[in-house]
Amino acid sequence: MKLLKLIANLGYGSRKEVTAMFREGRVTDAGGDVLYADDAVVHADVRIDGEPLDPAQSIVLMLHKPVGYTCSMRDPGRVVYDLLPPRFRLRNPIVSPVGRLDRDTSGLLLLTDDGALLHRIVSPKSGMLKVYDVTLAGDLRGDESSLFASGTLMLEAEKMPLAPVAMEVLGPRAARLALTEGRYHQVRRMFAAVGNRVEALHRSRIGGLALDGLASGEWRALTADDIARLFDR
Ligand code: URA
User: Fold this and answer.
1) Residue from 185, 155, 194, 159 nearest 167 by CA
2) Among the ranges 48-52, 54-58, 91-95, which has the highest mean pLDDT value?
3) What is the pLDDT of residues 102-137, one digit of tens each?
4) Closest ligand 1 atom to the C-alpha of 100?
5) For ligand 1, is residue 112 a contact (CB within 6 Å)?
6) What is the pTM for the complete model shown?
7) For the chain, how many structural domains are there in total?
8) CATH number of domain containing 184
């Protein structure tokens, strides 16, 4: 693939913008020699402003999503893409969220351009573990853990009961939930079903992967080790 097309597909700019980057000498090889649009150079040796290119395919990002951002491309308010470099929205194929967190939920969100990997994580068959910390508006009644673990809880407008959810009580109005499904607004609806209301919701873990010090609003690309850890549970 021509360098111009490769770089445009990675979302660094339109063809016109990437042409300008070549003209400005911003595209170089690993040794700092300026490259031209028609040069045939292996991906790993290309630099833009001295930085290596993003991988050509199968990039996975983790973002510590703050409250107030939606997992959407088109939303009049703030969207998770506002927290990432613009190239991730412009890449072809696009980097999209792996499942969704509500606007008012914070925590670990994955994004990828790899459709097969995305499916492997979100498919109901995957049973991928997701851990949420919940703060509630009212006190726990005491029977929530056994009800959620029973595999019999029916949410409104659903045909199948929820798969068992493990719940650890962290305080009178605080709990940690381990889900293996990802139904629409699942945690909020579970607590609505027991007459309570979620005040704050935070996802701390997906599979074996945790935020591990990534601050709110920050992101990083996953390594092969991270991806192995993700599936290691
Ligand atoms: N459950 C919810 O209710 N909201 C989320 O964002 C995630 C899980």
Assistant:
1) 194
2) 48-52
3) 999 999 999 999 999 999 999 988 999 999 999 999
4) 6
5) no
6) 0.91
7) 3
8) 3.30.70.1560
Residue 137 DSSP one-character state: S
- CATH code at position 47: 3.10.290.10
Mind spelling out the 3-state secondary structure of 147-160?
Answer: HHHCCCCCCCCCCC
Strand boundaries in 118-180, DSSP class E = 130-136, 166-171, 174-179
75 is catalytic: no
Set 102, 143, 212, 226: catalytic member: 102
Atom of ligand 1 nearest to the CA of 190: 3
Residue-number span of the structural domain to which 171 is assigned: 129-206
- Work out the burial of residue 174: count CB atoms within 10 Å of its CB; fewer than 13 is exposed, 13-18 middle, 19 or more buried: middle
24 and 119 fall within a common domain: no
